[in-house]
Amino acid sequence: MSSQNANPIVRSGNGAKAKHQGLRVIPLGGLHEIGKNTCVFEYGDELMLVDAGLAFPSDGMHGVNVVMPDTSYLRENQKRIRGMVVTHGHEDHIGGIPHHLKNFNIPIIYGPRLAMSMLQGKMEEAGVTDRTTIQTVGPRDVVHVGQHFKVEFIRNTHSMADSFTLAITTPVGVVIFTGDFKFDHTPVDGEAFDLQRLAHYGEQGVLCLFSDSTNAEIPGFTPPERAVFPNLDRHISQAEGRVIITTFASSIHRVSMILELAMKNGRKVGLLGRSMLNVIAKARELGYMRAPDDLFVPIKQIRDLPDRETLLLMTGSQGEPLAALSRISRGEHPQVQVKSTDTIIFSASPIPGNTISVVNTIDRLMMMGAKVVYGKGEGIHVSGHGCQEDHKLMLALAKPKFFVPVHGEHRMLVCHSKTAQSMGIPADHILIIDNGDVVELTPDTIHKGEPVKAGIELLDASRNGIVDARVLKERQQLAEDGVITLLAVITTDGVMAAPPRVNLRGVVTAADARKLSVWAEREITWVLENRWNQLARNTGGKAPDVDWVGVQREVEVGLQRRLRRELQVDPLIICLVQPAPAGTPAYKGRADAEPDTRPAPRGGRRDGGGRQPAAVPQRQLVTAAASAAPAAAPASAAVPAPVAAASKAPVEEPEPTGRVRRRRSAAAAG
C-alpha cells in the first residue's frame, strides 16, 4: 500500500472492516502503571511494535510470577505485524517478548546490542528463536519497518547502558518516542545523550512527542549516575567485615562502579543471583563492563577469604521472595549466612508496590545484627528517569506540536502534562491516555479513537500457564476465607445414599461441624427434590444420563449462599459427587434436624419416567460429621470413584421460588 493513501482500509480488533485515517498509536501497557511497556504504531495495513515488557505481581496475585499485557489485539492482527523496535534491555521493555513469540510471529526485531544479547538468551530458554530474526543497531542507525515506518535510533542516557530514544518517521510526520531517559552529562561509559540529533528533528518539525513520565512529580534534574560513586566508596572503605551490595542486575553503570570500587579497596567479588551472573557476563562480553577475571571468585571459594577482602554482589533489591538477599535474610541460603560484622548496602529504591517487601527484608537483616545502609539520605542510589527539568529540556529540544505523556501512573501523566503546558504546548494538543486507548494523529489533529481490548495476562511460575480471572479469584478466596470440601453419595435415580462428609481448611467460623453438615445435607436434598428433572435425562437405557457437574454446581451455589447469609464468610466450596447405582438404599437422616422452609419451584419435580423418585424427607437430615464414615461405608463399597469439580464463586442472586442456574460447568462429568 502506498504511503500516500490517506484513507486506508484496515481491520479493527473484532475483525470488522473500519476506516482509519492517519497514524494510530496504541499503548497496550505502561499507562497508569509502572512496567509492561508495550506500544503499537499502526498505519494502513501495517503494525509496528515498540518494546514488549512485563511487570511484577501485586500482593493479591497469589501464585503469579509475572504480569503481561493482554495481547488479544496483536493476536487478532498478527498478519499485519511488520516488526518491532526495542529502546533498551530492561525487563519492563523486553521481558514479554519470548512469551509473545509463543502466540504470534514477529518478522524482525531491531534493538541495541546489549538488549538483543539478553533477549537472545531469553528466547533460547523459551524455545522461540525460530519465531523472529534479531538485528542489532547502533547510534544514528536507521531501519525501515514495513513501507510506512522509518526509525532512527538516537543515543540517550539511562540507568542501563546502550539505551535509545526513537525518531519514527511516518506518512503524517515525525514522532519522537523517548523510551526511558534522563540527561546525564557525565555518563559512566562515556556514551553521552545525542542532543544534536534530537535538536535536528526539533528544527525539522516533530508532530508528536511520547515521553517517559516516571519522575514527573519531582522537581529539578535527576543527578548523574556518578553521583553515587563517592558515597559507595565511603561505605565500602569503612566496612570492617564483608560488604554485601544489592542493586538491579541490569544497572550496568552501577555494577561497573561497584566492581571498580571493589578493586580500589582490595576486595574480591562473589556474585549471587542468576540475573546478576547473566547480565555481567553479557556486558563484559560486549565491552560495556571492564573487569579482570581474577576479580571474581566462585561463591563456594570466597567463603575461605578474610571478610575484610570480600564483597558480595547480588539480586534482591526489591525484596523478591526467591532472590538471593531475600533468602539470606530468612536464613535459607545454602552458602551465605549473615554475620554481625557485615555491611549490607541497598543501592536501589523500591519500585512502587515493592516497598513492604523491601522493608521486611531490611528488618530481618537488622535483626540478624548486620549494618544495613539504605534510603535516599545515604546518596547510594539515583534514578535512571528524568525529573521535571529533564522533561523541560526534552520538550525544548523536540519542540513537538502535540504531546502524550506515557510510562507512568495517572498522577505522573497529569503532572507531566502540566509541565508541557508550562513549555507552551496548548492543553488541547495534549492527551492523557490509558492502556488500550487509541491516539489518532494527522498532520493537523490529535484525538482519541475507538479503544481496543487491553488488560493483563497473569503467568504462573512456569511462565507458560495463564492464571485467568476465575483461578485468581479462587486463590483469593482460599487466602481470605479458606476452603470447604463436601462429599455427597447420590444414586443415579436421585437418592442420597449416605450422609455428606464436610471438611474445613482455613475457615474461621463459630458454627460447629454438626450445623455445617446439616446445611450441606439440606442443600443436597433441595437439589434432588427441585432440580433433578433438569439434571437427569432418561435416554431409554437402564440408567439415566445425569449431569453430575450440574449437581455439584447446584449444591455449591446453595451452600455458598447460606454461608454468606448465616455466617458472613465466603470460602471456596468444592463439592465431590460419588455416584451410586440405582436402587441403593436411601440414607435415613436425623429426625431432629431443622427443616428447610424454602418453597419448591412451581410444578415440583419428576424424573424422566413420570414417577416421583424416592426423596429424603425434609426432616431427615444429616448426622454429625463424626458419624459420617461408618454410615457411608455400605454405600461406598459398591459405587464408582468420585467425580470432582472445583467451584467458581457465584454471584448472589435472589431466589423467590428456588435457585436458578447461572453458570456453565467448567468441566465434564466423569
Q: First CA to last CA: what distance? A: 54 Å
The residue fraction in helices comes out at: 25-40%
Helical/strand content category: alpha/beta
CATH topology assignment of the largest domain: Metallo-beta-lactamase, Chain A
Counting H and I runs of at least 4 residues, what is the number of helices?
18
Q: Just name the CATH architecture of the largest domain.
A: 4-Layer Sandwich
Low-confidence residue ranges: 1-19, 602-670
| Average pLDDT | 83
Number of strands: 30
Number of domains: 3
Rg over CA atoms: 32 Å
The CATH superfamily of the largest domain turns out to be Ribonuclease Z/Hydroxyacylglutathione hydrolase-like
The CATH class of the largest domain, by name, is Alpha Beta
> What does the overall shape look like?
globular
Instruction: Please report which band the strand proportion falls in: under 5%, 5-15%, 15-25%, 25-35%, 35-45% or over 45%.
Output: 15-25%
